[in-house]
Amino acid sequence: MTRTTPLNTIDLRVGGGLPLVLLHGFPLDLRMWAACAAVLPAGTRAIGVDLPGAGHSDLDGARPSLEHSAERVHDTLREAGVGNAIVVGLSMGGYVALALADLYPGFVAGLGLVDTKSVADTDEARANRRRIANAVEEAQTVDAVLGMPAALLSDISATERRHLFPVLESWIRSQSPAGVAWTQRAMAARPDRTRVLEKYEAPVAVVVGAQDKLAPPAEAEHMAAAARTAGGDVTLTEVPDAGHMAPVEDPQTVARALADLRRRVRDT
């Protein structure tokens, strides 16, 4: 079997036992998980991963595909000695987490889905992703996605957490145009993975910002209902005053939900 190129990983929280693997959203990198990881219970290991083309992880010439992203996450962690893990993803990271559960179910001991959805893009959303990918490639800048903090953060954050806007913008500015374009095309090509949740029997935590406009609470309820059909242990946490960046806007509430997920996985 061909070995994939390792991704950049960092232990955002040092600990032991079954680790949490934290997968970031678009167009960001593992730094978005740092505040949440910092308030996890002592002794919890949390591994941040830069997905392909983001942060310090390179593209490797593969066609745009979240299945390839999942393969590289799996191979990177196995090579680092991680036999299995609780995989947690925000938005795009949630798409990759579901792809991991689909492709490597024995690796994913628990699943955290934060501000994400299990369904595929609409035709309109898919076309918009491809339009942005083309614009970024043509301009060779990330200007086309610099306005995203306004959509990612809640209305409450716009008034009470203004400091988050320049932070997110700085993270976006540090991404490569090639990585942004590749990722948009990979997300546009993803399938509906609701069926993965319908047969996933390990513990699941679904977390959503109450003001999330991109993956609203109805999408979280859809995922939780799908996971419950498998008869597993499923929780749904709605984070008040948070938008599409709940771990950044309210790290403590998200950390509590993830600590509870880790406890439930350990107990099973």
Automatic annotation (TrEMBL):
Q: Does the keyword Hydrolase apply?
A: yes
User: Where does the record place the AB hydrolase-1 domain?
Assistant: 20-257
Q: Gene3D superfamilies, per this entry? A: alpha/beta hydrolase
One Pfam family matching this protein: Abhydrolase_6
Enumerate the UniProt keywords alphabetically. Hydrolase
Q: Which GO terms describe its molecular function?
A: hydrolase activity
Source domain of life: Bacteria
- Per its record, how is this protein called by name? Alpha/beta hydrolase
